[in-house]
Design a protein that fits this description.
Strand content: 5-15%
Distance between the termini: 21 Å
Helix content: 25-40%
Radius of gyration: 18 Å
Shape: globular
Length: 260
Amino acid sequence: MTGTLSPEVVVLGASGTVGAGVVAALLEAGSPVLAVGRDPHRLQKLAALYPDEPGLELLVGSVATEKAGAALAATVSGRARPLRAVIDATSGPRPRSTRVLDAPAARLRRTLDQELLPHLIAAHHLLPLLAGHHDAQFLLVGGPAGERAWSGYGLQSVASAATRMLINVLHEEARPLGVRVQLIGVDAPLQTPENAAHACPGWPRALEVGRCVVTQLINGRRRPGPLVPFRRDCSDPPGQTLFTSLVDPPWAARGDPLPH
């Protein structure tokens, strides 16, 4: 570990539903968190949930464009804490239901701009900051639309499928850097206070997804592939403090290659 500061985890899209669940799970596990979001008011609402939490810091930032991604990376790289993981919980605006057959090509292009390219921009600018840190991880949280077409939301299914292939490619390209790139695939909609009246019992809550992220950070070598399905058995509170598992392990000091 660098210096005396515990390593931190950057959460992109921290003020969204999934991002807030990831933040909650990381803090529960004892990890310092840098919560990144575009809307300062929503970030402040997130911070208000943890008024006495010293491990939570806020940063207004975005990966919507290459310029914004570069600015975010410059800020993150200048921080005192070592960086051990980036969690990409960003998502595009909630879409209107439409058939692909009824949508002009420009609509698909816009969907890809909003749903796919921010993940690539995040990888462009933040993944290199993880290089050289043993057991560094770049995790993206994805939904079920990439595995099967959702009626009326085909454009999002196309974008989600493209995101899954992007993760497969980045997983291979990041191996020489010693960074593990993975997507945690949630196979159902999230259960939220807004949809509680009609949510199915099997739908996970955001905190459960966040705990699955924490489990993957702790036990990533046990599930090394690029696509990691969300599982109920990994959504319990963690049994250990997170950042202790991210300290450079003995094999790192010997210069051994990253285990896969």
